[in-house]
Amino acid sequence: IPGKGNVFREFIRAIRCYQWAKNVLVFVPIITSHTFMNLPTVYAGLVMFIAWCLVASGVYLSNDILDLQADRNHPRKRLRPFASGRLPLAVGIFASPLFVLTGIGITLLVSWQAAILLTVYALVSLAYSLHYKRRVLVDVFILAFLYTSRVVGGGIATDNPVSIWLMGFSCFFFLGLAFLKRSAELTWKRDLNDHSSGNRGYRSEDLEIIKLFGVASGFASVIILSLYVRSNVATAMYAHPSVIWVIVPLLLFWQCRLWIMTCRGKMHDDPILFSIKDRA
Questions:
Q1: Of all residues in the chain, what percent carry a pLDDT higher than 90?
Q2: Most buried one in 88, 96, 264, 276, CB count within 10 A?
Q3: Backbone conformation region of residue 88, classed left if phi is above 0, alpha if psi is from -120 to 50, else beta
Q4: CA of 88: how far to CAs of 1, 64, 111, in Å?
């Protein structure tokens, strides 16, 4: 076990600052509503971003404590700060509720409705860690909810209600990414010739249908985007809505690349984090 000088470094690893990249989703409603030049709106978005980062880090700490034994038996996760013993459990037990409560408290500066949603996010995340991550299909729908709630939370905090178009796109898009994440795990286990269900509930024979679910969900999101281009909402928001069509092939290319990398066994990270590091 390293000396005390490394505790801070291990704590930074445990709160997973790199995962904060997901929380930029709270800014999506600001962009889609064209209010990114409004300073009070941007301020509310920044507050929501900081609050979500704190709550998410608190959830990660609690997850690592709850999954301690499983992580120690995992070839990669055994190197995590708590599982490896480099960070005392007492640090996580103290910091986890502190981060969550601080994040929710900060959200009250901009919106009590957003604070309620953030509280629901924390509770659902905890329920996921304790039980629902072992329930087949339920787990991916919860993951999709946790992603989509960031977009909805950003809309509530900045007073930019999420449209049915954005909601539909987000639900299918993030459901596809959740299925992709499970496919990556099953592919990794297949390559190790591990046919056990582990602590997820999925079996090796589920891989093909999981891929089908994921690809279908991802492509459904692109279809929704395509239909939005010709909608009355887009016509009212943009002088030349047809230009949005440029995004459609790019989004298709990105999703196809993610699935190819997954099938090749190269998806070792969360899909969004993988994309951030992927030069292509």
A1: 65
A2: 96
A3: beta
A4: 10, 12, 35
Please, are residues 121 and 149 in contact by the beta-carbon 8 Å criterion? yes
Confidence (pTM) = 0.89
CA 246, chain centre distance (Å): 25
What is the C-alpha separation between 149 and 26, in angstroms, rounded? 9
d(CA 143, CA 128): 9
Distances (CA, A) of 210 to 134, 200, 203, 257: 15, 13, 10, 17
| Integer Cα distance of 164 and 241 in angstroms | 17
Q: Confirm if 92 and 62 have CB atoms less than 8 A apart.
A: yes
pLDDT tens for 237-254 read 898 988 889 999 999 999
Q: What is the pLDDT of residue 26?
A: 97
d(CA 271, CA 269): 6
Residues 261 and 267 sit within 8 Å (Cβ to Cβ): yes
What does the block give as tokens for 22?
């997901």
Alpha-carbon dihedral sign for residues 213, 218, 223, 228: positive
